[in-house]
Write a structure and sequence with these properties.
Helix content is 41%, strand content 16%. The protein has 222 residues and is α/β, with parallel strands linked by helices. The strands form 2 sheets. A 6-stranded mixed beta sheet has the order 1-2-3-5-8-7, sandwiched between helices. The protein has a two-stranded antiparallel ribbon with strand order 4-6.
């Protein structure tokens, strides 16, 4: 009973987004938006130029804003942004990516405060698909060193079902915080001390709310 239509649109172009939203609502009212686009251009901050940021911001920041602008007058059931754990825990050589995802998190909270539906999910890596599938061996090793585990797509989709009714910002990721703590050099930052104090050994699968920041929580662990 489901029909899937594929359309091409430039997320960074307001006219293109307006046409997409209009076309999506022709057969029946548009009821939900999922933004899952993204791009990567890794590099150390002091070696990055403006292009290293604008290329990432185009998909994440501009695209998110244009979808928000084009649909804020509609009665949506959901407005879901696929953010990244990079904006929550940080990610080496990805300042541009972390900043772009942090914008998504902030916009979801802004929509919530304005009485609009809005959810930004700070995803951890998925196994075998998405950006994680394109990582090299050393990049995967860095993830493991930080205690980040790749979620099976079925686990991630199950978690998506659990958090869809949430608003604001939610982190969903598989993380062995003990591994990360072992890899830390020097004192544990205050932010991570709060995470470690909330550790749980919940069964798989489980989504456990952990207070991390105002109006937000993380799902720990799978």
């Amino acid at each position: 009973g489901v029909r899937v239509n594929f359309e091409i649109a430039d997320l960074s172009d307001a006219v293109s987004i307006d046409r997409l939203v209009q076309k999506a609502g022709e057969a029946q009212p548009l009821r939900g938006v999922f933004h899952a686009a993204g791009a990567l251009r890794d590099g150390f901050l002091r070696q990055s130029d403006a292009a290293a940021f604008t290329s990432i911001f185009s998909a994440k920041i501009t695209g998110t804003w244009e979808l928000h602008r084009a649909t804020q007058g509609l009665q949506l059931d959901c407005f879901v942004l696929f953010s990244s754990i990079a904006s929550l825990l940080g990610s080496p050589a990805q300042a541009n990516y972390a900043a772009a995802n942090a914008f998504m998190d902030a916009l979801a909270r802004e929509r919530q405060q304005a009485g609009l539906v809005g959810l930004s999910i700070q995803w951890g890596p998925w196994d075998g698909i998405g950006m994680t599938a394109r990582l090299g061996a050393r990049d995967r090793e860095r993830l493991h060193e930080r205690g980040l585990l790749a979620m099976e797509p079925t686990q991630a989709l199950w978690a998506l079902e659990q958090v869809l009714g949430s608003a604001g910002c939610v982190g969903v990721f598989a993380w062995n915080s003990r591994t990360y703590r072992t890899a830390l050099k020097g004192p544990v930052p205050a932010f991570y001390r709060r995470v470690f104090a909330s550790e749980t050994t919940a069964a798989i699968p489980a989504v456990v709310p952990v207070a991390l920041a105002p109006r937000g929580y993380a799902a720990l662990p799978f």
